[in-house]
Sequence to fold (441 residues):
Amino acid sequence: MRRYNVTTFGCQMNAHDSERIKGMLEELGLGEAPRLEDADLIVFNTCTIREKAESRLAAHLGLAKALKDADPGRLLAVGGCFAEVQREHLFEQFPQVDFAFGPGSIAELGEWLKAERNGARGSFGSGGERRFAAELPFRRERPFQAWVQVSMGCNSVCSYCIVPTVRGKQISRPAEKVLAEVRALAADGVREITLLGQNVNSYGRDLPAAERVTFAELLRSCDRVDGVERIRFTSPHPKDFRSDLIAAMAECESVCEHAHLPAQSGSSRILKAMRRTYDRERFLSLAAEMRERIPDLALTTDLIVGFPGETGEDFEQTLSLVEQAAFDGAYTFVYSPRYDTEAASLPDQVPEEVKRERIERLIELVQSIAGERNRARIGSTEQVLVEGPSRTDETLLRGRTRRNTTVNFAGTAKAGELAEVRVENATSTTLRGAQVVSSPA
Ligand code: 5AD
Ligand code: SF4
Fold:
């Protein structure tokens, strides 16, 4: 039996795609090799959102080349977003690659493997009609958690972002297919699902009128499926976060009290240049409405510093947005110019050292506010879905609260179980606690 190894870069959509790649390869009779060195087929599922993702990939491609030089019988396939943008140059730049495929043509990897014995190397997946990875078999990393893809692509035109170019226009999966998958997962013992889309809350707009379902309606239907105890979704766009969705979050018991709502900047001027279609005030009033209607909500975000033309004053506005929205956590990024995006050719690119200095100040503020918000949980009892042993201390268990905070705790619960944990301590990113075992009456 031949063996494969898949390395995943980038976002949760890529992680989901990788589960489908693995499922497909296993259906073709390949087994997983835990180490790259032992694989007959090496697959890199790549990302191109920022330059950093690419430098990490370059190191991996170098390693794969050395492995192929030692054993030319090995195959190297490169999929995902970097493969897609580099379509024209990939094989020139990296002659060690045998096959490449974009995020919309994962199934073609399987088709190529079946045909490969005929010697067709150095080819790119046809890139014909885009197909949902979700239609392929999958191999889940955890039996009790699953991603469910609701759409692919993105219709936004954020000026810094390469995703719409790479993953194309939004295509929504018919609600019936999404729900059938959720029901099957529930029957299979899955307790937590995360609905995935590049712009998850604009789900449904591209469906034919007769089948059109809003994201809020889809969320309510998922909530009605028995057995699924937690529903999450990522990533929404603030522009499409309407009252109907806030109401669905507030009213559906299984929808978790967490929203990841990417703000990107706190300056209305920069938001406009980013083409985010909301301004600072609209974002803050949305955040306030969400906090008011969803008790105990955790709000996390993405922020970019050093967008072209960002002045010291614009950056101060981002700092003050973080304070006003009181984010429970944030992913912070230094702006990275991407091929053929509008922002890459804007004048006034911000010097690297200014970006560095800004990101450091931003991280410090984010951590201090997140730490404060986490410390406010001390003394409360939280429902935790147990994921396994703690990464830092084997004597403890690890899991996540409904608010999506990681908790390390002393207890006896098993992976996949829901435990009640009393919070005793907190950092800016994690909680520490002990399982509460109710004594028999
Ligand atoms: N530079 C820096 N960060 C970016 N992101 C997207 N494109 C870029 C870029 N060119 C960030 C955004 C987005 C997250 C997934 O990555 O904050 O929400
Ligand atoms: Fe990029 Fe904007 Fe689409 Fe998110 S919504 S993937 S930031 S274009």
Summary: The chain has three domains: 3-124, 134-374, 381-435. The first helix runs from residue 12 to 27. Residues 154, 156, 158, 161, 163-164, 198-199, 237 surround iron/sulfur cluster (ligand 2) (CB under 6 Å).
